[in-house]
Amino acid sequence: MMKFLFQIVLVVFVPKVMAQEVLTVDQAVQIALKNNYDIKIATNDLSVDKVNNSIGNAGMLPQVDASLTKNNSIQNSKQTQSNGDVRQLDNAKNNRLEYGVNLGWTIFDGLKMFARYDQLKQLEKQGDTQLKLTVLTKVSDVMTTYYDLVQQQQLIKALDTTIVISKQRLKTAENRFTIGKAAKLEVLNAQVDLNTDTSVLLKQKEQFGITKIRLNELLARDLAVDFQVIEEVTVDDKLQLEELKTLTEKQNLQLQLALINKRVAELDLKQTKGNRYPTVRLNTGYTFVETESSLGFTSATSSRGLNYGVTATLPIFNGFSQNRNEKIAKLQVENSSLMVEQQKQTVNAQLASAFQTYLTNVELAKLEESNEAIAKRNMEITFDKFKIGTVPTIEFRNAQENYINAIARNSNAKFQAKISEIVLQQIAGNIKF
């Protein structure tokens, strides 16, 4: 029987494996890190945050402007001088040209610029953490989809095997019918069961193909790329809750984002309080002015030179807006603190629940592995007895179905255990890639 099953595997699977790429989970993760669109978008968002993080954007640097103003007018003018003389000119032209360079520099604004610069640093840190969270999420999605393919591939392998066995059963039933040792009903039942097995296999292959497309989508590559996945799933059954808790406190990215958001809210409050203080601004420039007039004591003037000064403003009353804005900012800081505590509780609850699921799935994986071995041995014995006619068809069919179901449960149990492991590592921010 073992030799028979081995030959089935060789016939069914070896040609396919040789013809297709064998994609490992590490290779899939690396392709996703390079190609995935969400990761690329998050990377660009981080680049924007890095560009924004500058002392200039915080308002610490002076602003220099070049300006040019040219005004022309044509008017009918009439002037009455102090001695009574009247001067009148139609279509009198007046021209004024002014150009120069001006510098303005805010040297004190209630320390808001420093708070703003610290906030820009926090926003860059937020973007970096968001990128890490996106990467972690996508890597987890890739690994989950990949191991789903592994368990589906194992199920297809089992279904291929059962179809070969069903064909053997049909051939045996036909031979027994030919020599008069079985009724036609036995042949028909064997044919119906073979058709049923074939239908189940076709449906499973359809699902396998759809999941391949999903993985190719996550890898952001041609959806038609065909590949094989590894045959077995290795589950780390040595994870410890206390170690995971320690890692979670240090590395959980959602918790880190909550802490960053709290700091951003605190800096918003600091900037709002800065509006109570005066703003001092230095101004200087070099200006050229030229004027022409068709009517007046002077027909043309020109000047050039340096101007400089200082401007100071102090808010005195703005309709209680300052008090209102500070109160709102303080409430936002309080909310951000509450959200940090809420996130801690949520993460700890997720970790505890996921670890309980992990322990259960690990035990189930061990149990189902044992059940598969028992079901396999039972089918081998039943098949040998069926060939010599000592067991009825229904008993053999039950043994065959029990074996396939045991394979499916074993494969699914390993898959669920692996997914539980991935979830725990994701919460702890400890997925390796």
From TrEMBL:
This is TolC family protein. It is found in: Cell outer membrane. Keywords: Cell outer membrane, Membrane, Signal, Transmembrane, Transmembrane beta strand, Transport. It comes from Flavobacterium hankyongi. Residues 1-19 form the signal peptide. InterPro entries: OMP_efflux, TolC-like. The keyword ATP-binding does not apply. Pfam families: OEP. Coiled coil: none annotated.
